[in-house]
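Fold this sequence, please.
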Amino acid sequence: RTKARSSLATALAKSGLGTVGVTVANFLRSRPSRTLQSKTSYRLVSQFPEWTDTLYEQCMGEYDLIARRDRTALELRYPADVPDLQRGIVRSHAREIGWFTVVERIHNKPQHFGDLKVGLVADFLAPPEHVDKVVSAATDQLRQAGCDLIICNASHHHAATALRQLGYFQGPSNFPLLVSPKLGKMIGPLAETLGSSHLVRADGDSIGAMLPAQQNSLGRAA
Protein backbone atom coordinates (compact mmCIF):
# COMPACT_ATOMS: atom_id res chain seq x y z
CA ARG A 1 0.00 0.00 0.00
CA THR A 2 3.02 2.30 0.26
CA LYS A 3 5.77 2.98 -2.25
CA ALA A 4 8.45 1.75 0.16
CA ARG A 5 6.70 -1.57 0.81
CA SER A 6 5.97 -2.00 -2.88
CA SER A 7 9.63 -1.45 -3.75
CA LEU A 8 10.75 -3.89 -1.04
CA ALA A 9 8.30 -6.57 -2.20
CA THR A 10 9.48 -6.14 -5.82
CA ALA A 11 13.12 -6.44 -4.76
CA LEU A 12 12.44 -9.60 -2.75
CA ALA A 13 10.53 -11.14 -5.64
CA LYS A 14 13.08 -10.35 -8.37
CA SER A 15 16.08 -11.36 -6.28
CA GLY A 16 14.56 -14.68 -5.21
CA LEU A 17 15.02 -13.84 -1.53
CA GLY A 18 11.27 -13.80 -1.02
CA THR A 19 10.93 -17.38 -2.25
CA VAL A 20 13.83 -18.52 -0.09
CA GLY A 21 12.39 -16.80 2.98
CA VAL A 22 8.93 -18.32 2.55
CA THR A 23 10.40 -21.78 1.91
CA VAL A 24 12.51 -21.63 5.06
CA ALA A 25 9.60 -20.32 7.13
CA ASN A 26 7.31 -23.09 5.91
CA PHE A 27 9.96 -25.71 6.64
CA LEU A 28 10.42 -24.46 10.19
CA ARG A 29 6.68 -24.18 10.88
CA SER A 30 5.26 -27.28 9.25
CA ARG A 31 5.52 -31.00 9.82
CA PRO A 32 8.37 -32.90 8.16
CA SER A 33 5.83 -34.14 5.61
CA ARG A 34 3.27 -31.63 4.34
CA THR A 35 1.64 -34.07 1.96
CA LEU A 36 -1.52 -36.03 2.61
CA GLN A 37 -1.19 -38.64 5.31
CA SER A 38 -0.84 -42.25 4.22
CA LYS A 39 -4.12 -44.02 3.53
CA THR A 40 -5.83 -40.64 3.13
CA SER A 41 -7.03 -39.52 -0.28
CA TYR A 42 -9.63 -37.26 -1.86
CA ARG A 43 -11.59 -36.96 -5.09
CA LEU A 44 -13.44 -34.06 -6.68
CA VAL A 45 -17.19 -34.40 -7.20
CA SER A 46 -19.91 -32.42 -8.97
CA GLN A 47 -22.54 -33.20 -6.33
CA PHE A 48 -22.49 -33.93 -2.64
CA PRO A 49 -23.29 -37.58 -1.84
CA GLU A 50 -26.21 -38.65 0.35
CA TRP A 51 -23.96 -39.50 3.30
CA THR A 52 -23.26 -35.80 3.84
CA ASP A 53 -26.63 -35.67 5.65
CA THR A 54 -25.44 -38.34 8.07
CA LEU A 55 -22.14 -36.53 8.56
CA TYR A 56 -23.93 -33.27 9.35
CA GLU A 57 -26.19 -34.99 11.90
CA GLN A 58 -23.12 -36.50 13.56
CA CYS A 59 -21.23 -33.21 13.67
CA MET A 60 -24.19 -31.29 15.12
CA GLY A 61 -23.45 -32.96 18.44
CA GLU A 62 -19.69 -32.38 18.27
CA TYR A 63 -19.59 -28.60 17.75
CA ASP A 64 -21.03 -25.97 20.06
CA LEU A 65 -22.18 -23.87 17.11
CA ILE A 66 -22.53 -24.92 13.47
CA ALA A 67 -24.59 -23.67 10.52
CA ARG A 68 -26.78 -25.98 8.49
CA ARG A 69 -24.68 -28.23 6.29
CA ASP A 70 -26.93 -30.99 5.04
CA ARG A 71 -26.95 -31.98 1.39
CA THR A 72 -29.81 -29.63 0.43
CA ALA A 73 -28.09 -26.63 1.98
CA LEU A 74 -24.74 -27.50 0.41
CA GLU A 75 -26.14 -27.79 -3.12
CA LEU A 76 -27.68 -24.33 -2.72
CA ARG A 77 -24.54 -22.84 -1.22
CA TYR A 78 -22.14 -24.34 -3.74
CA PRO A 79 -23.82 -24.64 -7.18
CA ALA A 80 -22.15 -27.01 -9.61
CA ASP A 81 -21.76 -24.34 -12.34
CA VAL A 82 -19.56 -21.93 -10.40
CA PRO A 83 -16.10 -21.55 -12.05
CA ASP A 84 -13.03 -22.12 -9.88
CA LEU A 85 -15.15 -23.79 -7.17
CA GLN A 86 -14.23 -27.38 -6.37
CA ARG A 87 -15.92 -29.85 -4.03
CA GLY A 88 -13.89 -32.71 -2.61
CA ILE A 89 -14.69 -35.91 -0.72
CA VAL A 90 -11.98 -37.13 1.65
CA ARG A 91 -11.37 -40.79 2.51
CA SER A 92 -9.16 -42.30 5.17
CA HIS A 93 -8.61 -46.02 5.71
CA ALA A 94 -11.14 -46.81 2.96
CA ARG A 95 -14.06 -44.77 4.36
CA GLU A 96 -15.40 -41.27 3.81
CA ILE A 97 -14.54 -38.93 6.68
CA GLY A 98 -15.48 -35.48 5.39
CA TRP A 99 -15.72 -33.00 2.54
CA PHE A 100 -14.31 -29.61 1.52
CA THR A 101 -15.02 -26.79 -0.89
CA VAL A 102 -12.26 -24.56 -2.25
CA VAL A 103 -12.19 -21.54 -4.55
CA GLU A 104 -9.13 -21.74 -6.78
CA ARG A 105 -9.11 -18.03 -7.63
CA ILE A 106 -10.84 -15.52 -5.39
CA HIS A 107 -11.54 -11.85 -5.96
CA ASN A 108 -8.10 -10.28 -5.64
CA LYS A 109 -7.58 -6.60 -4.91
CA PRO A 110 -4.20 -5.62 -6.44
CA GLN A 111 -3.30 -3.43 -3.46
CA HIS A 112 -3.53 -6.49 -1.21
CA PHE A 113 -1.88 -9.31 -3.18
CA GLY A 114 -0.65 -7.86 -6.48
CA ASP A 115 -1.02 -10.39 -9.29
CA LEU A 116 -0.78 -13.49 -7.07
CA LYS A 117 -3.24 -16.31 -7.69
CA VAL A 118 -5.07 -16.48 -4.35
CA GLY A 119 -6.99 -19.60 -3.35
CA LEU A 120 -9.43 -20.04 -0.49
CA VAL A 121 -10.45 -23.00 1.66
CA ALA A 122 -14.07 -21.86 1.72
CA ASP A 123 -15.71 -24.63 3.74
CA PHE A 124 -15.22 -28.14 5.08
CA LEU A 125 -16.80 -30.56 7.49
CA ALA A 126 -15.55 -33.57 9.42
CA PRO A 127 -15.64 -34.82 13.00
CA PRO A 128 -13.04 -32.91 15.04
CA GLU A 129 -10.61 -35.85 15.05
CA HIS A 130 -10.50 -35.84 11.21
CA VAL A 131 -10.39 -32.09 10.57
CA ASP A 132 -6.60 -32.18 10.01
CA LYS A 133 -6.95 -34.68 7.17
CA VAL A 134 -9.71 -32.73 5.46
CA VAL A 135 -7.89 -29.39 5.74
CA SER A 136 -4.75 -31.06 4.38
CA ALA A 137 -6.70 -32.40 1.38
CA ALA A 138 -8.22 -28.99 0.65
CA THR A 139 -4.80 -27.36 0.85
CA ASP A 140 -3.33 -30.00 -1.46
CA GLN A 141 -6.03 -29.32 -4.07
CA LEU A 142 -5.23 -25.60 -4.05
CA ARG A 143 -1.51 -26.32 -4.35
CA GLN A 144 -2.22 -28.57 -7.32
CA ALA A 145 -4.24 -25.71 -8.86
CA GLY A 146 -1.13 -23.51 -8.74
CA CYS A 147 -2.23 -21.04 -6.09
CA ASP A 148 0.51 -18.70 -4.92
CA LEU A 149 -1.25 -17.91 -1.66
CA ILE A 150 -3.90 -19.89 0.24
CA ILE A 151 -6.26 -18.41 2.82
CA CYS A 152 -8.50 -20.16 5.33
CA ASN A 153 -10.76 -18.65 7.99
CA ALA A 154 -11.72 -21.24 10.62
CA SER A 155 -12.70 -20.97 14.28
CA HIS A 156 -12.32 -24.47 15.75
CA HIS A 157 -9.11 -25.10 17.66
CA HIS A 158 -8.51 -28.41 15.83
CA ALA A 159 -8.66 -26.55 12.51
CA ALA A 160 -6.29 -23.86 13.80
CA THR A 161 -3.79 -26.49 14.91
CA ALA A 162 -4.01 -28.33 11.59
CA LEU A 163 -3.46 -25.12 9.63
CA ARG A 164 -0.37 -24.22 11.65
CA GLN A 165 1.06 -27.70 11.10
CA LEU A 166 0.52 -27.29 7.35
CA GLY A 167 2.57 -24.08 7.35
CA TYR A 168 -0.18 -21.45 7.45
CA PHE A 169 0.59 -18.19 9.22
CA GLN A 170 -1.95 -16.86 11.70
CA GLY A 171 -3.08 -13.27 11.37
CA PRO A 172 -5.86 -10.97 12.55
CA SER A 173 -9.25 -11.42 10.94
CA ASN A 174 -11.28 -8.55 9.54
CA PHE A 175 -14.47 -10.64 9.62
CA PRO A 176 -16.42 -9.93 12.83
CA LEU A 177 -18.86 -12.43 14.30
CA LEU A 178 -22.09 -10.72 15.32
CA VAL A 179 -24.75 -12.68 17.20
CA SER A 180 -28.21 -11.73 18.37
CA PRO A 181 -28.88 -11.34 22.11
CA LYS A 182 -30.99 -14.51 22.07
CA LEU A 183 -28.28 -16.58 20.38
CA GLY A 184 -25.68 -15.05 22.69
CA LYS A 185 -27.55 -16.35 25.71
CA MET A 186 -27.77 -19.82 24.15
CA ILE A 187 -24.09 -20.24 23.31
CA GLY A 188 -22.51 -18.29 26.16
CA PRO A 189 -19.36 -16.12 26.01
CA LEU A 190 -17.74 -16.23 22.56
CA ALA A 191 -14.28 -16.37 24.12
CA GLU A 192 -15.23 -19.80 25.46
CA THR A 193 -17.44 -21.00 22.62
CA LEU A 194 -15.63 -19.93 19.47
CA GLY A 195 -12.81 -22.48 19.72
CA SER A 196 -15.30 -25.36 19.90
CA SER A 197 -17.57 -23.99 17.14
CA HIS A 198 -17.35 -24.65 13.41
CA LEU A 199 -17.35 -21.30 11.63
CA VAL A 200 -15.58 -20.61 8.33
CA ARG A 201 -15.41 -17.91 5.66
CA ALA A 202 -18.42 -19.27 3.78
CA ASP A 203 -20.64 -18.79 6.84
CA GLY A 204 -20.45 -15.06 6.21
CA ASP A 205 -19.68 -14.34 2.57
CA SER A 206 -21.57 -15.98 -0.26
CA ILE A 207 -19.53 -17.72 -2.93
CA GLY A 208 -20.38 -14.87 -5.28
CA ALA A 209 -18.60 -12.40 -3.02
CA MET A 210 -15.41 -14.45 -3.26
CA LEU A 211 -15.28 -14.78 -7.04
CA PRO A 212 -13.37 -12.48 -9.42
CA ALA A 213 -15.17 -9.25 -10.23
CA GLN A 214 -16.18 -10.35 -13.75
CA GLN A 215 -18.36 -13.13 -12.34
CA ASN A 216 -21.67 -12.66 -10.56
CA SER A 217 -23.00 -14.63 -7.57
CA LEU A 218 -23.79 -17.60 -9.79
CA GLY A 219 -20.37 -17.60 -11.37
CA ARG A 220 -21.59 -16.52 -14.82
CA ALA A 221 -20.25 -13.57 -16.77
CA ALA A 222 -21.66 -10.32 -15.36
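DSSP finds ten helices and five strands in the chain. The first strand starts at residue 40 and ends at 45.
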